[in-house]
Design brief:
It is an enzyme of class 2 (transferase). This is Glutamine--fructose-6-phosphate transaminase (Isomerizing). Its EC number is 2.6.1.16. Keywords: Aminotransferase, Transferase. It contains 14 helices and 12 strands. The protein has a 5-stranded parallel beta sheet, sandwiched between helices. A 5-stranded parallel beta sheet has the order 9-8-10-11-12, with helices on both faces. Helix 12 links the parallel strand 8 and strand 9. The longest helix has 21 residues. The chain is globular, with a radius of gyration of 20 Å. The two termini are 31 Å apart. It binds fructose -6-phosphate (F6R). Fructose -6-phosphate binds next to helix 5 and helix 12.
């Protein structure tokens, strides 16, 4: 059942080239020129008239939601808010018929997310679900939606569901942009063509496995970790930190890299490693500064960079190189080395990665 892998988590990490293929199937047509998300086409008026999008989710799904904000704002020019479902439901939210609420949940059963959906519906918002489990409560309660189709996720730490959620959000944003005309046909085609290549890029990233396994040995006994990123890499930093916390029980914080100087920089010393997500995007020069700031304070650095990077290579202690993709698709690529890093650190510590203490796969109570 684990397909020859020692744990479901590792199996699910390695499944991602094929789960992403399943997730993309039927959604990119005409060699990349057309994005097909039926929930958008069937509700075109709602998406064309939307004055705001509010995303609700918990945990890893909330991190995917934060990426959804960057994607939808950037591609569709619609303002987006992202809320923890548990906060949203008790925040006396302001919503009406021109709001679209997107609920993201792997299991489709998370109690707080379901409660948020019910509030949104009662206030007249159009509610769109992004879920993995076909026929679960969230897809049944929402007005429309998209399945991520990545197959059953057994490991408690979400991996393939996260990349599937981010892929669906990318396709959703591109489909809305196509409808609204906020992206040109050429830009849509670039996204569509790259989406089709993502499974093979992920295949390539997974080749970092042995290097990451060796690297993990150096960091197994760290007590704290900082994960830093900017722009599309900021939610990736949050997700990397969560993954490490939940399975290795090492304290880790994800932070927007530039926000570090407003407090957390005080923590940096030789005992506090930083994982810095620094692909070649429009914020690259900015994050180089942040890498230098960490180094100047004696912190050790593991950097995720684009193949061929020359600047950060000379500053960081370790670099993990990933293929170059347009920045809106980089989170799918950069999150995978972080999944492997947490996995190996937890294994080195002898932890039960598939069933970490105190956690459940589906949180059906608030
Ligand atoms: C982290 C993790 C949790 C879930 C959260 C939401 O690896 O798995 O943080 O993401 O409990 O679950 P779903 O997506 O099922 O609503």
């Amino acid at each position: 059942e684990k397909g020859g892998y020692p744990h479901f988590m590792l199996k699910e990490i390695f499944e991602q080239p094929s789960t992403l293929k399943d997730c993309i199937r039927g959604r990119v047509a005409e060699k990349g020129r057309r994005i097909i998300i039926s929930g958008v086409m069937d509700n075109a008026e709602k998406f064309l008239n939307a004055k705001r999008v509010v995303i609700v989710a918990c945990g890893t799904s909330w991190h995917a939601g934060l990426l959804g904000k960057y994607l939808i704002q950037d591609m569709c020019r619609i303002p987006v808010e992202v809320e923890y479902a548990s906060e949203f439901r008790y925040s006396n939210p302001v919503l009406d018929e021109r709001d679209i609420v997107i609920a993201i949940s792997q299991s489709g059963e998370t109690a707080d997310t379901l409660a948020a959906i019910n509030i949104a519906k009662s206030m007249g918002a159009f509610v769109y679900g992004i879920s993995n489990v076909v026929g679960s409560s969230i897809p049944r309660e929402t007005d429309s939606g998209t399945y991520i189709h990545v197959g059953p996720e057994i490991g408690v730490a979400s991996t393939k569901a996260f990349t599937g959620q981010v892929m669906v959000l990318t396709l959703l944003a591109a489909a809305i942009a196509q409808l609204k005309g906020t992206k040109s046909p050429e830009e849509i085609e670039e996204i569509g063509k790259t989406v089709n290549k993502i499974p093979s890029y992920v295949e390539k990233v997974l080749k970092l496995n042995d290097k990451i396994e060796r690297l993990s040995l150096i960091y197994t006994y760290a007590r704290n970790f900082l994960y830093l990123g900017r722009g599309y890499s900021y939610p990736v930093a949050l997700e990397g930190a969560l993954k490490l916390k939940e399975i290795s029980y090492i304290h880790a914080e994800g932070y927007p890299a530039a926000e570090m100087k407003h407090g957390p920089i005080a923590l940096i010393d030789a005992e506090m490693p930083s994982v810095i997500i620094a692909p070649n995007d429009h914020l690259y020069e900015k994050i180089v500064n942040n890498v230098q700031q960490v180094k100047a304070r004696g912190g050790s650095i593991i950097a995720i960079v684009t193949e061929g990077d020359t600047v950060i290579r000379n500053i960081a202690d370790h670099v993990l190189e990933v293929p170059e993709v347009p920045e809106c698709l980089s989170p799918i690529i950069t999150s995978i080395p972080l999944q492997l890093l947490s996995y190996y650190i937890a294994i080195n510590k002898g932890k039960d990665v598939d069933m970490p203490r105190n956690l459940a796969k589906s949180v059906t109570v608030e």
